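User: What would this chain look like folded?
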Amino acid sequence: MTDNNKDLNEMLKIKREKLAELKQEGRDPHEIVNFKDRTPAGKIKDNFEEYDGKSARIAGRIIAKRGHGNMSFMDIQDESGKIQIVNRKNVIGDEFKQVKKYDIGDIVGIEGNVFKTNQGEISIETQTPQLLTKSLQMLPEKWHGLKDPDLRYRQRYLDLIVNPEVKEVFYLRSQIISEIRKFLDGRGFMEVETPILNTIAGGATARPFITHHNTLDIDMYLRIANELYLKRLIVGGFDKVYEMGRMFRNEGMDATHNPEYTAMELYQAYADYEDMMEITEHMIETVATNVLGKTTIEYDGQQIELKAPWARIPMIDAIKNETGIDFNEIASYEDAVAIAKEKGVEVKETRGEIISEFFEEFVEETLIQPTFVIDYPVEISPLAKRKNDDKSLTYRFEAFINGKEVANAFSELNDAADQRERFEAQVAKREKGDDEAQMMDYDFVNALEVGLPPTGGLGIGIDRVIMLLTGQHSIRDVLLFPTMKPIGLEKAENRDSSKETYETYDKLTTEEIDLSKVKVEPLFEDMVDFDTFSKSDFRVVKVKNCEEVPKSKKLLKFTLDDGSEKERVILSGIKEYYSAESLIGKTLLAICNLPPRKMMGIDSEGMIISAICEYDGEEKLNLIMLDDNIPAGSKLY
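Assistant: Here's the prediction, encoded as structure tokens.
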């Protein structure tokens, strides 16, 4: 054990001893049940003239303390901000001894007079102190704070204490969600609730989470969408309904995907996807205006204008604009396969799916300004109505901002026979091993047979909208408690109950290595002269973002700070060993002067350095991770 660990353990021990002493003295802070009539610190500071010289009650957490002799100072932080507390022995008498024992992290209640120090700092002079909760842990040291993203997400309570500016994102999140509800309520939509636990995972193309109902002895699914239930309500006679809540998809995790996320779906009878476009663009414009006071935002260095109307373009036209390939002239599946092979695009089972692959490969990331991409192939739109003038396409759009999808909408399919056929096509895909394909929902088909009026439907990814409006680049920064892989005791205690959850757990965790099972390759005998070696530019890099490369089973895409003003992108085939989200914020080592190499259509500008050995008969890979205090761009010699 290091001396630092010994010091830390000793400090934690002292805290616990202080609590034991308080209990012995009859001062157990945990017996206090309230501290009423408090005034927020921010209110006192913003209205000093009103409170100057008057008594006020404040409660919060001690985040700093200092002092000498018969006088001490504390900074108290509550939800509204922090304020200085001044403790004088000649004012509080014997209680001064108790106040001196307070620790950083303790929660206290203070009653005292508001004043301004000679240095001009608004403060409260303690008249009556009260310890409300004894903190038994250490807060992160204030100068270095809590910067490790992984720890910030795992222990969000510490993040909110040490990095109070993080709260602003979640205040904005609350306001954004409230404004969306106001917008829809003002247009006559009724908010409803539909089941989260489903017997059929329907309404979207995604892999569900599966659980088991013991009494009924059946498998059930956490909902991947609420679409089919909401459309049943339109059949039942409600004309405008919406629901905002959690959806669950058992898929990959990266900067824009979390297994559970917030989505909003709405349905309007006697409307179509044109109406859904109008709702989408005006909703986002209105929310931005009411929450941010503007419709222009800056994101990734781009000025993005959210004001309606947004651009509209058919998917096939968008592909032609970027590639010169016109799928209006490529009518057969065989010709679509040929052009896909020529352009290095994954070959799918249908022409429509190949069109979608071209769009994802060449178009999506170019859509920076808000854009409605319309007229999607029917093969990838099993719940949308076919176009009257081209039955291979549907009345569907997706809205893109900054290269990311934020909304999906249809003129809803209300032909029961057509819907049954599309469900059957999806079932055939499932039987071939596609666990994201949709299931047959006979009751929904029956609802359509009862009669669904012409209906427009819209789904919006609320978290992605919030990311845009708050300037965040990871979905984890707009979720208070994002999904994290268990570590340490949490991992060990849960292992037996959910073994499969941990089989792909990152190799860099608490796993113990039996060095007798390690086999390393022989050292190279060929010598490299120093002049040649010195031409390799090894640099320290910070991982700004890391995400899975779509359609690749091996590649992770790193966006790196290499010490220059330009972001560096490097692709690395380590997906088998590391999850993308676990690497965000890490400090790594890379060669930065290799020529760019195309990988999955992306220029990879260098190489991430890792260590490889054979362990117990299997190849083991570990990224070289460095001390976070080493600056980005530092050169290795």
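The longest strand covers residues 55-68. If you want, I can go into more detail on any region.
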